[in-house]
Sequence to fold (1082 residues):
Amino acid sequence: FKLISPAFGVILVWTEGERGGAEGRVTSFGQWCCQTNRGIPLVKILAFKIIRLVTAADHVTLPPQEPGLVPADLVMSLLIEYYTEALLNLLHGSHDMIETENESLRERVADLEKKVLEQGDEIVCLRSTLADVLRRLNQFESRGGPIPENRIPVRNGSVVHRVLLQNNHVQSSPQYKDSPSSMKKYQGSVSDLASRDPLRRAASYASSLPQRRVVHYQSTGSLHSDSPSSNSVSPVPTSPSPTHTPTPPPPQRATPTSTGRTTPTQKHSAPQRPTSVGNLSLAKRWSSTGDFHNVGITSPQSAMATASRQAHQFRSTRAPIRGWGWVTVNNDVDFPPTPDGADTLLSGDWSPVTRGYVQLMWRWLTLTSVTHSLVLWTRDASFNEEEGSVRIFLRGRPIVLYAPSELAESYDLNKVTTPPQTRLKLEWVMAYMTQRDITSRFGHLYAALVAQNISQSTTMEIFNTTLDSPDSYGYRGRDGRSNLYLLPTGEMVYFVAAAVVLYNVEEQSQRHYLGHTDDVKCIAIHPNKLIVASGQTAGHDRREGRSWKFNPPPDRTAPEADQWPHIRVWNSVSLHTLSVIGIGEFERSICCLSFSKADGGTLLCAVDEAPDHNISIWDWQKGERGQKITETKCSSDTVVAAEFHPLDRTCVVTCGKSHISFWTLDAGGTLYKRMGVFESRDKPKYVTCLAFTETGDVISGDSNGNVIIWGRGTNTISKLIKNVHEGSVFSVCVMKEGQIITGGGKDGRLKQYDAQFNDTGLETQVPEHLGSVRVVSEGRGSQLLVGTTKNCILIGSLEVGLSPTVLGHTDELWGLAVHPSLPQFLTAGHDRLVHLWDSMSHSVVWSKDIAEQAQSAAFSLDGSVIIVGCTSGKWLVMDSETREVYSMHTDGGEPIQVARFSPDGGFLALGSRDNNIYVYQVSEEARKYSRVGRCSGHSSFITHLDWSADSQFLQSNSGDYELLYWNASLCRQITQSSELRDVEWASNTCTLTFNTIGIWPEGADGTDVNQSERSHDARLLATADDFGKVKLYSYPAAYPKSLCHTYGGHSSHVTNVGFLHDDSRLISTGGRDTSVMQWMLV
Fold:
């Protein structure tokens, strides 16, 4: 059958595509048309399928006609007669329309490319102009001549100074004609913005002097103004000026800037003209409303197109334009000031609404494109010699800090403060000692307590205190598995946060492996019992706003590469790292590790906690980074355990959610998987643990409470023991003598079976307040090591029972207070527990559940009374020896962030998250409290408090980076902060003061540093930050270039630090990792 129209071929092709298979024949299509196409034009049926058009064949052979179908030739002739012309018209019309649109699109793309290139030239011109202005400013400063200035009065009597440039040769960006009305609107916006901004307060930002004449800027390349509402300098006329014919600038040489950088010569066509002295002397600053010049844009559509082009160009250049500061519009979002290149957006006759909308769009496009490519949130500092003040920037906020008089005359921003000679050494990750341990091993503490004039009854009560608290610090059992082992040295190996702890119970000593940079998730012991492998999770660089598991650095040897998830193999005797494996190979974290046992531990198996839970086999001894033999997908569901078979080098067993898998590694390095067959038995939701018998059978525990034995070399069940525990079987341990110990998660029981899986009747119960069984490991002799879900470690046997040796907190810790005269400290956490610790014996003196989430704590002047602030706004007054609660008070409904006694003991200040500071008068040996008043003035929650040495003044920080001063007895703010520049402060916990300028890293956003603490001898300053680091500075850290010693160990944010009363040790508390670490000063 010969086609007489291409349209018919279209019909055939579309039909076979729709019908498919053997039914896609012409005869079937003809029958379908006769049945469904009555009164419906076929062109409408085919219109929505036009995208499936293909070239039709010239000849099509019809298949034999099937009975009962309409003859194909009749259908085809009708279709050709009535619809060929319509289809052809449709196709030709669509083709013409597409061709027209393509031509228009090509023209538009070419126009956009041309305009992008033009914008690039304008940006080059702007950079050159800015570099030249900076150079000229440096020349003025080097000559020592005063710079004339204007002053504009703003809020609270402070002044905004405008630097006036006087030089005939300074070139600026192109100037354009402005109307007087537009300039009046602009000039008024500066003072309006300053008056509307609630964040700029006189106490911390405003000048107390009538004039500023000389401002020296640190050589960082940034040009920061000393006005609260501007950050850059741009000359502009204040009255209409005739439009000059632009002349191209002469070729520019490489011009040195204040940073020592050079601006290379660039060809550009952007117009420039020399600026007269008169114009230069009328300089203005970019405010948050931008600078608007008339360049001929006359419509909103063209202006928005220009905004899009400029945002694209700005994003593509990715240049560090450090001269652009940030202008705060509200409390939460900071926007960059509008550069000259954006002035075209707001020219012409715009309504206020349209002008504001276009400007907001520019701000949004710019902000979203540069926040991750430009380092604009800096602490770049400038020093005002006349005022003796330093201006720093946190998250774009200018903050003025006044130097003490004795330091102001010689202050130099470029001075480098060396780190202290004193260093920190991790001494202890806190363990909770039992009564027996205390009395048998620390009897010498009795004499020490008596020597401190503590009564005998109190001393005996301290030593006889029972373990009535379920939680303390030191072990991660809440979400860990297979994380507790005993080494031949007698040390228990477990991990807390980013530290692997080796704890000798008998000698009461700890050693720590600190090679990891983030949470350790699993460990494995080599068959020789001396080598340990530990795997960590992916780090998170909060400052850069990126997670390493999704945005790793390109170089695996770069310093930041250790933030990737990886495995570290190390020697447990020397703590020396033998190999670092898998950098760049794992996505999230290593959840399972196992050394091969049949060949002496040459291979290492690892499972990545990624969506596919990839399993990989490594020859870990090949080079410093090992060699990966193979990798394959393990399971799309959770994997909780992976173990090499003890008798078969090529066999690996994994288990997890709804599966157990038996893997075989062939000679070619390929893994083959066989799934465990549960047959007709109930398939468990989770297979929770693995173990091996002496004969090579596999033992698994599951969420149904059953124990299953799998025959060696098979994937089928050989024996099933039902209902071993109520709830899940979390752990199975095979002892050297062949006995099998099982641990239950819900019932908290340990049960023993013999080698033939017969119940021996021996069992014991873990106390409920210590948690459920998470892992059981073999100890010395018949002893067992038991880790629980409440971060506790117990040691004992089924015959004599179990006793706790290490316990751990289960929620964040924020409260930390150091005893004023004893080597003790107190911690308080969100798990409602308060612990009083002894730093010498590394034990808990007492523990109390206060039934409230604790946020802060403080000791009274003599240490007899403790204040505990809670997240509900309540605060408790407790006896530090008897734990008796004297009283409970409430101030507001927000957390009490900080509590501080005055140095004379007569006042108590409480900083709340409701933005207020509550001041109380203290009497009756710190047992009675009468409110003096409330200090109101902060616009955000209180973060830190410090008392002056004479107990008259308070200084406080808030969440929006304010530093305010108060008269404590009157509860009134002292607005002239310069008056307190020479006040001696009893402590320095405020992170934002003149003496802590150097603790803020480059690019800090104001929340990076959680706490600072000055040593009692005022020589050292310790900080706790959001990157899991404890840092030690020389005090004061008053210079931006202050060097320090940095120490890891915590895996998440460090919430607090404190020096003991004699400065012999430093205590740090962790947030998410719930750990307490004790550092020795050496």
